[in-house]
Structure to design on (322 residues):
């Protein structure tokens, strides 16, 4: 039996993930869905945001539907997301940004870089070690190249090799892998790349970059499609996979039924595609499009529909197509 771990997390995760789960349950009632509780709320109750027990539970799942986690800026608080990515070795982060006339896939190295977690802090100085390894660079480059070969066939390597020696290694490895695979590629400094994506999004296909650059670049690119509430992501490793909206826990709007569930719904569609149900995944995007075309929108898109209400319209449309 296919097992899906459902992690609502914190904040609006408790509102958008139930919508996405309902869609999965309609398309696959035969799956086993089980909750896993991690996050800041868990830390407040138990003193631990994510224990070994929760990691072990996640490892039993065929795929993970993940919400959003609040990470307070405290020295003694361990990032749940970073821990899960490392424990499950989810080294490839895929963030699609797709509009009517452009289709960009940002591929982000997910386990090292400036999010290495190797840090020291004193009252006078704090340091974070930026780790870029040959192994990490090779496998993210190969993951991006596989996508290039499936799509239009162009790779852009984002880096800051003119300033960071670690990015020289990353750039050179990505270029070497692209040459070996015979794919068309170019490279750009990340700051110039960020501006050019906003100005000329149709010029880009697959973009590969390091951890923090990919994080910032994909958040920025969400502007092209209406904001963070619309952008999904997949975190893929060799054995495990986790799917989550790009947005955070948004505590300022949590519990108000105004969060946009589209990113979570699209993340569920990516989960279905990962599990091999392309037919089910293909029902989701047209349903979202038809609902939006009716003028039904959440507040961030200029409408008045609530999280649950918007989800109900999408679910109704999907059911009509079954």
């Amino acid at each position: 039996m296919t097992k899906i771990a459902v992690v609502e997390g914190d904040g609006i995760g408790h509102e958008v993930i139930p919508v996405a789960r309902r869609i999965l349950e309609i398309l696959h009632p035969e799956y086993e869905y089980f909750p896993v509780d991690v996050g800041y709320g868990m830390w407040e109750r138990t003193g631990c945001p994510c224990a070994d027990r929760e990691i072990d539970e996640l490892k039993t799942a065929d795929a993970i539907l993940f919400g959003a986690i609040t990470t307070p800026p405290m020295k003694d608080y361990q990032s749940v997301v970073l821990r899960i990515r490392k424990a499950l070795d989810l080294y490839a982060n895929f963030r699609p940004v797709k509009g009517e006339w452009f289709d960009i896939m940002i591929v982000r190295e997910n386990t090292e870089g400036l999010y290495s977690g190797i840090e020291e802090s004193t009252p006078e100085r704090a340091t974070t070690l930026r780790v870029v390894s040959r192994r990490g660079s090779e496998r993210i480059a190969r993951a991006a190249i596989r996508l290039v070969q499936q799509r239009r066939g162009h790779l852009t390597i984002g880096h800051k090799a003119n300033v960071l020696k670690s990015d020289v290694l990353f750039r050179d490895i990505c270029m070497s892998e692209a040459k070996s695979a015979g794919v068309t590629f170019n490279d750009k400094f990340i700051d110039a790349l960020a501006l050019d994506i906003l100005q000329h999004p149709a010029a880009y296909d697959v973009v590969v970059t390091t951890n923090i650059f990919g994080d910032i670049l994909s958040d920025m690119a969400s502007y092209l499609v209406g904001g963070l509430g619309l952008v999904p992501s997949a975190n893929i490793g060799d054995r495990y996979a986790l799917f989550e909206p790009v947005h955070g826990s948004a505590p300022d709007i949590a519990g108000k039924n105004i969060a946009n569930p589209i990113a979570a719904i699209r993340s569920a569609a990516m989960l279905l595609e990962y599990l091999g149900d392309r037919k089910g995944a293909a029902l989701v995007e047209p349903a979202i499009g038809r609902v939006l075309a009716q003028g039904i929108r959440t507040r961030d898109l200029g409408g008045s529909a609530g999280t649950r209400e918007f989800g109900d319209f999408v679910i109704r449309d999907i059911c009509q197509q079954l």
The first strand starts at residue 3 and ends at 9.
